[in-house]
What does this fold into?
Amino acid sequence: MEDIFNIKRASDLCRRQLFLNKNALLISGGAVLGLLLCITALTGHYHPENLHGLNALNLVVMFLGGAVFSSHAFSELQNTEKAMSYLTLPVSNAERFFSAWVLTSPFYIIGSLIAIVLINSFGVLFASGLNYATYMEHLFNHNFWITIAAYLSAQPIFFLGAVAFRKNNLMKTLLSVFILQFGLIAFGVFIMWISFGCNWQYAKEFNVDPLTFSPSIEHLFIVISKIVYWGVLPIYLLIVSFFKLKERQL
It folds into this structure.
């Protein structure tokens, strides 16, 4: 079992990746953090009542930053020389996969939460009449954690793009998502036209609205959609990413 996965080797690989990319992470992370700190400090000083509204900006930046970070999870594979060095490391594919996913998903979320707490604490210092404990309690509300969960669910899309594409991973991933969504919408419209297009007026005459579903069917559709989005799709994309990584090694 240790030949397939060893937690020590995986943690060593995580440290290696962080060490190799420390300059880029410090510069980009510091620039974004500094900008958000300035915006929050100015808002807290001049418009403290709008301080809570900046949390949406923090979450958007976190989401976009995570997409970029995940798209570069396997940046060494984009260069032939670096790819040879990376693929010949004494680690298994499971350890490569695990270390990249851990850094771009749970560790990234933890780092983002620390940054958000720091940014908002800094803003409260410049705001008058705000209670720190009450402010933080309202900050981490239900919608905040839903956004965090949405990132964890969407992150495997960009993670797969990092493995599947050799260059311009982020743009190619976004384009692929757009094409897929457009294809699904077009397919849905085609099915509706096949089912009701020729008999639309006939269905109306018998008080049958083709776009109206019974409450039970609608509820079932919503439940299935949530299961697919929050559970099935992320796991499926991670599995595909793992096998694409094995394919790159071959």
Remarks:
- The CA atoms of residues 17 and 105 lie 14 Å apart.
- The mean pLDDT is 82.
- The chain has eleven helices and no strands.
